[in-house]
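[Meeting: bench + compute handoff]

Bench side (C.D.) handed over the final construct sequence. Compute side (W.E.) agreed to return the predicted structure before the next meeting so the bench team could plan truncations. Sequence as handed over:
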Amino acid sequence: MIAILSDIHGNRPALEAVFAEMAKLGVRRMVVLGDVVGYGPFPNDCLRMISGAEVCLLGNHEAGLVGELNEEWFKDAAWGALEWTRKKLTHADREMIGKWRPTGSHEGVQLAHASLNPEAVFDYLLTPRALKAHFAAQTAPLCFVGHTHVPEIWTEGREDPVAWPKSGVYTREASRKTVINVGSVGLPRGGDKRATWATYDAGKGEVTLRRTAYDVQEIIRTIKHLRHDPVVEAKLLRDLGMRFSDRVSVGPLLRCLLGDRTKNLPMRQADGVDDGSCSV
């Protein structure tokens, strides 16, 4: 059995909790689908913690850090977070990230941070067009992705996603190409704020969606202490599940910094997509 993690986004407490659950399950192997950093306050720790991954892919946030994506690709909050993260990275961190690629494969399974479409490797698999282009490039029966932060199962030839079984265990259809989004460890979406990830048992053809509770308050305290750019801070706190009234009640500093801009902050906004559920 192997763990499939994605979109950690510098959230060390969430990653620590996932590692603890992996240990309880006896899972010692993992692949990471990118966006290890970006937004969260613990980029160096998270890079160190995933250094033992059998594969680690380049996410769009790492691509922004190494210059493969420019500022125009990102929303203001995402780029502001990348500027902060860039200052924290060591030479060794940059060398590690520089070896990553946005797609790959492992033991007969294809992997992508976002899409296998060679013309748009950071596309969002949210439309029939995007899914069609992805499946055209998928040669293996199974592919794992992240990027949207929402766990989903798509099979070639179907317009709608396959519902996750209530048990969380999905058995792959041998006759159809399947792409599975494993969600996000650090900033999950879809209403459940627990760290989201998956395990894959190749022998049984089973993918198990897992959700792990962690100490959200630890990362919230760190974010407040950092005094990020106010737009970045507001987005992080919102994505971690804090209501705006909770955010402004922590003190006058945040209220003064945000001012009237809070009226215009998007409720769910992606780096490149506004879709109602969003991603980062």
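W.E. noted at the follow-up: Confidence is low (pLDDT under 50) at residues 243-280. C.D. will use this when planning the next construct.
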